[in-house]
Amino acid sequence: MRLRDLLLATFLLLFFLLLFTPRRLAPLLSRRPPPLASAAARDHSRLAAAVESGARRVEPCPAGYVDHMPCEDPRRSSQLSREMNYYRERHCPPPEETPLCLVPPPDGYRVPVRWPESLNKIWHSNMPYNKIADRKGHQGWMKIEGPHFIFPGGGTMFPDGAGHYLEKLKKYVPLTGGVLRTALDMGCGVASFGGSLLAEGILTMSFAPRDSHKAQIQFALERGIPAFVAMLGTRRLPFSSFSFDLVHCSRCLIPFTAYNASYFIEVDRLLRPGGYLVISGPPVQWAKQEKEWADLQAVARALCYEVIAVDRNTAIWRKPTGDSCLPNQNELGIKLCDESDDSTVAWYIKLKNCVSRTSSVKGDYAVGSIPKWPDRLNRIPVRAGLLEDGTDIFEDDTRRWTRRVDYYKKSLNLELGTPSVRNVMDMNAFFGGFAAALSSDPVWVMNVLPANKPSTLSAIYDRGLIGVYHDWCEPFSTYPRTYDLLHVDGIAMLIEHQGSKRRRCSLVDLMVEMDRILRPEGTVLIRDSPEVIDKVNHIAHALRWTTAIHEGDSGSPETEKILVATKTMWKLSSESR
């Protein structure tokens, strides 16, 4: 009897499942409560509105968020595909899944060691992660000495220090005399190569992913060296085409010839005509990597690169100044991109397996033809002419920012030009006029070009400055507490639709992100209309910033105000841990 009852129950269950197909269940499911994401979005929006009105403060995040990077969160990325390192690229959560809270400093955090002393030592307590020192100390990366991390300047391929390595490169590459100015260091470690090039007047954008070498980019930025979290995976890197005079890889382990040479082709997109490519380490004359080395040489040959030298495990090529020879090189089937291809766009753009046309840019901007540094800083860049009336606009912009920075220093009591300010970000850089006006100060400036604005990033690089594309409705790819000064000319436009005052995202979310990347006791300077500055001031107080509002300089519009804010030093209470 029991067996018959069991069979009957099983039959009825199967009948029920067949009867109530997903289509039949849909009306039932539609009456369920809305998904959690919708509720979270409403809660996030209500909290942001309360903060913007001045009714709420933003509370600290839990202690576990001390190094929080929303778009490079290992908990999210670990669930993604490993193919072409997709999981190590940017993957940003929707705003409702990003905590609206203030990232706390670690226990024992101190005001960073000042530049230039910071190039060689930083406080251990500001990022107490010993993994690199333990694993790479014998290669000269870094070591622990008392309360400091010490940086001898070494690397895996130059354990005796980057200085000795640079002396070798100088035999083949013009690292002195201003011929080269902008460099890209791929897989940079703690950026000792880029730090050493500063003495030669070369400004290096160093990048590496957030990976098992915990906090390598955070160490670089704490040292005062330009650096950025990025991964060469499935997308173009967020830089304009033909920007770097030198591209360097020291044991970066990028498979340049994989995926139809997509990675080498991306490097070619970024390298200025006549620029230099240096690869040290595998696969260059490396044991058991003979095929990979042969393939690398074949790709360089197909793209018409000139071999300058192969010195033991270091290979140096020079990119041709034109693209006329490529159609005759069919060994690998690599072709030029269509003339309609825009090589300058690079924000969430998939990698391409065609070569960007250097002839798409009219004018002389190749290495050897472009003016030497520092003359190129204030020369009108060829690519400024991509904008209508670009030449006139560039000259006006240069004069405007020379005047404004002078006003900042004399009237706003900013510490520009002192060791207190080293890492600077211009969040709406346009032609890089703000950075150019600071060129005589001991600072470097990350020029950020909003991805939804007309592209002038190539002109910034032509000036000998560096920067990236970014959309400020998303978090930036850097660690917390990495910039001394954030500068914003027109904060409202960063989150508005093009040609409209309608917002794409929340001003509160943007300012919480600014707080995340700003160092304690760091400075924020925002220029905008009085109405916007009033809103910003409310939010700033909710972030525990101290503020002062100033009139603009004599040449600025009367409808513009300037807010100067300082991020206060605070610690988590014991009950928040």
TrEMBL record:
Its EC number is 2.1.1.-. Pfam families: Methyltransf_29 (PF03141). Keywords: Glycoprotein, Methyltransferase, Signal-anchor, Transferase, Transmembrane. Coiled coil: none annotated. Its main location: membrane. It is found in: Endomembrane system; Membrane. It is a single-pass membrane protein; Single-pass type II membrane protein. It comes from the Eukaryota. SUPFAM superfamilies: S-adenosyl-L-methionine-dependent methyltransferases (SSF53335). One of its GO terms (molecular function) is methyltransferase activity. Signal peptide: none annotated. GO terms for biological process: methylation. GO terms for cellular component: endomembrane system; membrane. PANTHER family: PECTIN METHYLTRANSFERASE QUA3-RELATED, SAM-DEPENDENT METHYLTRANSFERASE. Belongs to the methyltransferase superfamily. This is Methyltransferase. It comes from Eucalyptus globulus (Tasmanian blue gum). The lineage of its organism: Eukaryota, Viridiplantae, Streptophyta, Embryophyta, Tracheophyta.
